[in-house]
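chain below, 172 aa
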Amino acid sequence: MILPKVRDRRFVTIRRGGTLTDPDHHLLALWAAACAEHVLGLFESARPEDPRPRQAIEHARAWARGEVKMMQARAAGGHAMGAARDLRGAARHAAYAAGQAAVVAHVAAHELGAAAYAIKAASAAAPKGESDAARRLECQWQREQLPEPIRELVLDDQRLRNDICWSVFTAY
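prediction:
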């Protein structure tokens, strides 16, 4: 589980009683898509014929541009997660990252799921004895991609939810 039991109002849009603006919601989706795409090759090398995770990432971006409805992005995310079900390791985590990125359109707090699964994918793909270094590098890369308007929000979210996200955001 990557979502807290109590929803953080910072990840609920203003029109639904929270404090999240639509532009920041879109930035969260775009960042999550970047995180997922960074490890997508780990899925595609295992299942080159399965387009579902790539399509989920494309839907996350299309939603942020206003080209698809939330329900379409959410459905694409579900299909990407379905692609993960019979896999293990890095390929599975990469597909879940893509699925989580697409469902940010529905629940903004899934942004951390995309990032956490991407870190798990990078770690799982690393040679024996190098998984911690791979995890740190992936986390660092992700943080470098954070747009300034959402940077502090995401970093604080990582701190608050690190324990339910397999401790992948532990600061080094």
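The helical segments are 22-44, 52-64, 70-84, 89-102, 111-125, 131-145, 148-161. The chain has seven helices and no strands.
thats it, cya
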